[in-house]
Amino acid sequence: MRGNRMLAMLLAALTGLALAACSTARTTPTPNDSDLAVLARVTQDALEANATGAANNWANPETGARGTVTPMRTYKDGKTPCRDYQQTFTAGSRTMLAYGTACRVDDGTWNTQEHTGFYDPERRRYVRDGYYHYPYWPYYRRYPYSRYWYDDPFWPSRRSFFWMGYGRDF
Q1: Closest Cα to residue 83, out of 54, 106, 112?
Q2: What's the gap between Cα 170 and its chain centre?
Q3: Could you tell me which PROSITE patterns the record lists for this protein (predicted)?
Q4: Cα 124 to Cα 80: distance, rounded to the nearest angstrom
Q5: 106 with 84: CB under 8 angstroms?
């Protein structure tokens, strides 16, 4: 009787450990080749025809993914027209963002010069009003010699750090 009870407790402990090893985090959606083909076509169309700030919607019926492409800025690099753009990719209820720069080449197509890759905006930490803001601890205040950073709104991969002196506020 006692041996059966010990065996049951051991089995319960091993089951608990096995379940603890399973990930409970939400998975991040990534575009597959079919999604990227649709996105590339819509990106070319948006860069060619859309005004700055006007979005092109896209959807892939094969995967159910959808998103937008929005030209954000138009400028010239020498004599070459270039555009900065934002892409969104939504699979299920999760939306990913990406930013890029494309310049028009001689054959009339747009060639991507830089691309940030898709990232999850929910997992980013940021600074507002001189205080750190974390999703898990919103009351964390700055230290006397705090490090702040600025997230560039157009290029999320670029981050500038700077230090503030003791007692100095924004």
Answers
A1: 112
A2: 28
A3: PROKAR_LIPOPROTEIN
A4: 34
A5: no
